[in-house]
Design a protein that fits this description.
This protein has 325 residues and is an alpha/beta fold. The chain has helices at 4-29, 44-51, 67-72, 77-84, 118-132, 150-161, 181-184, 209-224, 253-260, 264-274, 280-303; strands spanning 59-61, 138-143, 166-172, 175-176, 179-180, 201-205, 230-235. Helix 1 (4-29) packs antiparallel against helix 10 (264-274). It binds thiamine diphosphate and magnesium ion.
Length: 325
Amino acid sequence: MIENAKLLEIYRRMLEIRFFEEKVFELYGQNLVPGTIHLYAGEEAVAVGVCANLRKDDYITSTHRGHGHCIAKGARLDKTMAEILGRKTGYCKGKGGSMHIADFSVGMLGATAVVGAGIPIATGAGLSAKMRGTDQVAACFFGDGASNQGTFHEGINLAAIWRLPVVFVCENNLYAMGTRQSRVMLTENVADRAAAYGIPSVVADGNDVLAVYEAAHLAVERARKSEGPTLIECKTYRLRGHSRFDPAAYRPKEEVETWLKKDPIARFQTKLFEIGALTEAEAKKIVDEVTKEVDEATRFAVESPFPEPEEALGDVYAKEGTIAK
Ligand SMILES: Cc1ncc(C[n+]2csc(CCOP(=O)(O)OP(=O)(O)O)c2C)c(N)n1
Ligand SMILES: [Mg+2]
């Protein structure tokens, strides 16, 4: 049973991600976002349901679709927005952009544009926690497409044989760019692959934040007790195309309509109303607060300066003496 305060925190986090993403979409249209963007809207229940089980000192690794992971792990909206807009006040001084945000202070080890590259990094973070004798856990987000990369097999196998505290979370949104999962995989579930590594797995409704929360709860507990990794597959769907320029014409209209009816935020809100954890007035208050928060983050980012050209080569190598032995 999750306490009401926690349920409302989960609801607020999901709204933060959705409103933040809508703002990024709007700013992109105003030519304020360099590069491209991959929006997480529609998949909020996965990041929030998993991260609601993690401590601040636990780790996550992310993907090219990483804004939601950052926010779910507790990164600040203003510095995240500034990074997406390429500003000096951003998490990576404006030099990483949308696909390369990291915030070590909350255990967000980084997003990456290289599909599947976060998987061995999470395995490494799990190994580090084990070697240091802490009970920290590393959660790793990746897509259905990434599960066909060699890094998936290598990263999970190593974590399995060494019983590392890692939770592998596949966000199966049915597509890798325009390629439908069934064209590149003969098995129905990515989770079925866990059997090959001798670890447990579960398929969760990725648009039901409580289902994700429960699945992640068991997996995180297992990892924390040094019982090894788990593979969680969350079936979900992105609201928009793969990236900003993709109209997603390859998705059948009926399929899109079916999934839109399963919007994770609307579903969770209905559930909260039903169980009496939220009233219409409280929901409106939270919506207003989150809207303001996103507006303030946007103002901070838009008013921030760009990095100077001569800063481009800084931070490429670590300074002598700053690497832990
Ligand atoms: C190693 C690598 N191969 C190909 C690409 C091009 N690419 C970018 S995103 C993407 C699809 C990823 O699909 P998935 O893992 O399902 O994540 P989703 O975009 O659906 O969240 C591809 C092929 C890349 N960035 N890196
Ligand atoms: Mg995908």
